[in-house]
Specification:
The structure holds two protein chains of two kinds. By secondary structure, chain A is α/β, with parallel strands linked by helices. In chain A, about 35% of the residues lie in helices and about 20% in strands. Chain A is built from 14 helices and eleven strands. Chain A starts with 6 loop residues before the first strand and ends with a strand. In chain B, the strands form two sheets. Chain B has a five-stranded mixed β-barrel. Chain B has a three-stranded antiparallel beta sheet with strand order 2-1-3. Chain B is mainly beta. Chain B folds into two domains: about 50 residues, no CATH class; about 80 residues, OB fold (Dihydrolipoamide Acetyltransferase, E2P) (Beta Barrel). Chain B is about 5% helix and about 40% strand. The chains are: A alpha/beta, B mainly beta. At the A-B interface, helix 5, helix 6 and strand 5 of A face strand 4, strand 5, strand 6 and strand 8 of B. Strand 5 of chain A pairs antiparallel with strand 4 of chain B, so a sheet runs across the interface.
Chain lengths: ~375, ~140
């Protein structure tokens, strides 16, 4: 378990987010990384550890392009959309072990212009069980694999599609306030309700985007972070959590509980804060339902009460818990949650496009690969 | 039976082959730990209760009840376009495990948690039979 506040986010960077490109994923990843490194006031050759998002650039790419003379650590955290936040734990562990001073987390993808999700997941080792036993039945894409979790929640607790719509509507509004978001036209609950059904109960506007672009974060040892260009954002607590039956949702004892439920109590304890202390939350939003379920698993409300919790603009900038203030994967861009970490750092620095007033403490979650979770709680340094 | 089958097909391993062979014979077979007797699904090398790698296969009763479902309206694979919309059921089996399969002849308006179903067998190509669920 990483010691509290052993490291801090010192730099964040993004490319322009797009739907359509002829560029490579690698070029996006390097551009975003360079932006994050410069944001920290560092040089690319200062990076001594890399944790790239899986299926993208590898250590060799950073050594070659950045001219790093002595890269001391490289790893990936293969947890799908939970990877980016889980990488924070990995980065802190190697910082705490004295191996690295400045670790780069980065992602570049051509999710819109390259292979789409239905094709991509077939090639991922985490999906090999599903590949043999569920894909031949026609259950291929995440929307189809996750829809039975949402349906079960609805049947057990009376959760409605209109409640899920609230998440889509609020997130889109936040995207409309960004310079760098791909879907900025505001939507209504009725727009959500009339959007086409993808895999019942998930409609088109319950689903995240496919995007082209890159995002990156530099995590530095706390003793180095103070002397860099920007106010450090200290990591108070971080953990990853794996669900029961991680490779087949079908076999999971409780379809409505995610791996995040195992990580959340540890991270709140590590950070020494309560839910009331959280000023802003960037919650992985591959689907609206997954946001609602995570709010329950984080402990903001009881299991089954997520639908009521998200109603009436509760997740808006002036709501009880501002969520996905950048527009998330639903409306800004699908950067596998790296953009959520970028946004949390900006919120806590006070430089976000849609700023939550006086945000001092916030959290960011990751979710992926059918239920893996990760959570970090951070504060303004 | 289609002359050309273009949907995704499984690639069985020595550990999972008996499941697929069973379906081809019109039997729903489940893996069972030969030491502690725990039934598991999907097939895999080790029992998570006693860590034994000795396995048996048992014939399932072929009955079950609906645990959850989804109705897919978008073809995530081009060969599935002609099947839309289709119902995918997650079903509790009395053996203590769950399985997925498409529903056959079940109206979407009848779906509810606890709905009884029975397994049937859909020979989709020479060497591949998929399970389906019908009203029980």
């Amino acid at each position: 378990m990483p010691r509290q506040e052993a490291g801090a986010i010192t730099g964040v960077g993004e490319t322009k987010y797009l739907r359509g490109t002829d560029r490579t994923a690698l070029s996006f990843q390097l551009e975003a990384s360079l932006n994050a490194i410069r944001d920290a006031g560092l040089k690319p050759s200062d990076i001594d550890g890399v944790i790239p998002y899986g299926h993208g650039a590898v250590a060799e790419d950073f050594i070659t392009n950045f001219g790093i003379k002595d890269l001391r650590f490289s790893a990936t955290t293969p947890m799908g959309g939970a990877s980016a936040v889980a990488s924070i734990q990995c980065a802190l562990a190697v910082i705490q072990a004295g191996i690295c001073k400045h670790v780069l987390l980065s992602l570049g993808r051509t999710g819109y212009s390259g292979g789409r999700i239905g094709t991509r997941v077939q090639q991922m080792p985490q999906f090999k069980v599903i590949g043999e036993f569920e894909m031949p039945l026609g259950a291929i894409a995440p929307a189809q694999l996750y829809a039975p979790m949402a349906r079960r929640h609805m049947e057990l607790y009376g959760t409605t599609s209109r409640q899920l719509a609230e998440i889509a509507v609020t997130t889109r509004y936040h995207a409309s306030l960004q310079a760098n978001a791909t879907m900025k036209n505001p939507i209504t609950i009725e727009d959500h309700q009339s959007s086409r059904m993808i895999s019942d109960p998930l409609r088109l506007l319950d689903c995240s985007l496919e995007s082209d672009g890159g995002a990156a974060v530099v995590i530095s040892a706390a003793d180095r972070a103070r002397d860099l260009a920007k106010r450090p954002i200290l990591v108070m607590g971080v953990a990853e959590g794996h669900p029961d039956s991680p490779s087949a949702i079908t076999q999971r004892p409780d379809l409505t509980t995610l791996g995040l439920a195992k990580a959340a109590p540890k991270v709140f304890e590590m950070a020494g804060v309560t839910h009331a202390d959280i000023d802003v939350a960037e919650v992985y939003d591959c689907f609206t339902y997954i946001v609602m379920c995570q709010l329950e698993d984080l402990g903001f409300c009881k299991k089954g009460e997520g639908g009521a919790f998200v109603q009436d603009g509760a997740l808006g900038l002036n709501g009880r818990l501002p969520v996905n203030t950048h527009g998330g994967l639903l409306s800004q861009a699908h950067m596998a949650g790296m953009n959520h970490i970028v946004e949390l750092a900006r919120q806590l620095r006070g430089e976000a496009a849609a700023q939550v007033p006086d945000a001092e403490i916030g959290l960011v979650t990751g979710y992926g690969d059918m239920g893996d979770g990760a959570l970090a709680i951070m504060r303004r340094g | 039976m289609d002359a050309i089958y273009e949907k995704l097909v499984p690639s069985p391993t020595p550990e999972t082959r008996p499941y697929w062979d069973g379906l081809n014979e019109g039997r729903l077979r489940l893996q069972r730990c030969a030491d502690c007797g725990k039934v598991r699904h999907y097939p895999r090398p080790m029992c998570d209760a006693c860590w034994s790698m000795n396995t048996d296969w048992v014939d399932a009763a072929g009955t079950g009840t609906v645990h959850s479902w989804t109705i897919t309206h978008y073809a995530f694979h081009p060969a599935l376009k002609g099947d839309l919309p289709y119902i995918l059921l997650t079903v509790d089996l009395p053996e203590g495990v769950r399985m997925n399969a498409q529903a056959r002849g079940i109206d979407a308006s009848a779906l509810r948690v606890g709905l009884p179903v029975v397994v049937a067998f859909d020979r989709v190509k020479d060497d591949l039979t998929l399970p389906v669920f019908e009203a029980g």
